[in-house]
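Memo to structure team: turn this sequence into structure tokens by end of day. - J.P.
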Amino acid sequence: MKVFKFPLLTITISFAIGIIAAYYVQWSFSTLIVSLLFCLGIFSFLFWKSKKALLQNPFFGITTYLLALILGMMSFYIHSDLNSKHHYTKTSFEDSNSIRAIVTTTLKPNEKYHKYFISLSHFNDSIASGKLLLYVPKSNIEILNSGDEIWLNSTIYPVPKAFNPYQFDYSKYLEKQNVFHQIYTQENQIKIVQRHKTIDYYIENLRNNLSKSFEIHQFDSKTKAIIDALILGQRLELDKETIADYSNAGVIHILAISGLHISIIYFFIVFLLKPLKRIRFGAEIQLLIVLAILWLFALLTGLPASVTRAVTLFSFISIGNYFNQPKAIYNALAISAFLILLVKPNAIFDIGFQLSYAAVLSIVLFQPFYKKFYFSENKIAVYFTDTILVSLAAQIGVLPLSLYYFNQLPLLFLLANLVIIPLSSLVLIAGIVILPLNYVLPTVAVFLGKILE
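Reply from structure team:
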């Protein structure tokens, strides 16, 4: 297969298999060290020997993949919060536990509670680490924000496991994010000790202000929620009906900023900056501007996993294009996935991570066959043919995962993508253009906002 001509891809796959193996096998640190040193020794010997040989020793390749697998297991062990000596689970729980922590992430609320991830600093007067899921009543006077240092006394509960077959197991989902327990608080039970103005605080503040700038348009709540999801990556206000409608049509990915949105922004920026290539150092300036805008956008959305992997991927594609290597997409895929897994090994268990890479890999694999289906050289006809073929290729790639996780296959995905992708592209670009106009030329922004709505 063409894929195996790219060793970076197969090494990354071996690294990912190592992470999955570590999750289920759970070797001790000493066992991992011994295994790593053993593999490293064999790898070094075969590498030295291969430099003197005319033909590549197949055992060198096998050892390389085995070493990548062990490194994957080691990475998972190091990043597992449970292996920290200060993890809160290593102390005894009481009926009411003294907890001091910092709010790190604001989650989508439910009908009664606001939800947050908090990172512990002290647990029952001892230095502690670890993450907890915090539920705060919506009737609470103060709304928590990223960077808030809080103190409370509360009972800690394990996240309940799913009992029905094929039911989504929220406890497993949280476990793979190093969250094992939850706290339900009462009204005004939490004391805010200090507001740390961390980068998360400033980003959340900026994002909220940008979202509020759309209030001059007086959009209805559903439209405003969709704009926040498409442009700022915030799905907190999306109602269940909207999510269900998009999900049933097979286009739920439109509401979560991912590869599709980043690709639209990427090609839009490249198109705008095309004249730069005519000047000296124009290609370098274009590359730097593209990378800067992509990563600023990622920061603005709060660096969710879907945006981080998409921006990382397109960053390597940009660099590849700069070095006149536009076809090295497999290496770009491999490096982006490897870096994400190196920093956050648990990302391999994220459904979004699996779906996005499966979709992109499938699109790339089927790309050589696209031209065989062109029935016209007309640009509009080619565009719609490409849209259908790319949607079909992506759906083939994610089909096994969709059936495994969701037990369903949306039958409207081709028709829906044919309509939704062009419209979402226009909405995203128009929204980005309108955003600065909300501050500079509000009258023009409102006029464009009517068209956008």
